[in-house]
Amino acid sequence: MDFTVVTYGGGEVLSTTFNALAAVMNAKSGTLYQPLARCGLIVGLVWATSAMVYGEKAKFLHNWMIPLYLALALFFAPTCTIHVRDPVTSYHFKVDNVPWGLGMVAGAVSQIGDKVTREIEKTFSLPDDLQYHKTGAMMASNLIASARTFQVTNEDVAETLRSFVNQCVVYDALIGNKYTLEDLRTSPDIWRLAMERPSPARSFVYKEPGRGNVPQIITCQQGAARLNALLKHNVQNAFQFFEAKVFGGNATQKTSPMAGAQLRQYLPGAFNYMTNMAKSAEDHMLQQMMIYAVVEAVETKSTALGNAADFAVRRAYLQQRANQETVAGVAAQKLIAMKNVLEALIYAAFIFILPMALVPGGWRFISKWVGLVVWIQLWPPLYAILNFIMMLSLRAKGVGLISASNGITIANSVGFINLHADMAAQ
Question: pTM, whole model, 2 decimals?
Answer without folding.
Answer: 0.72
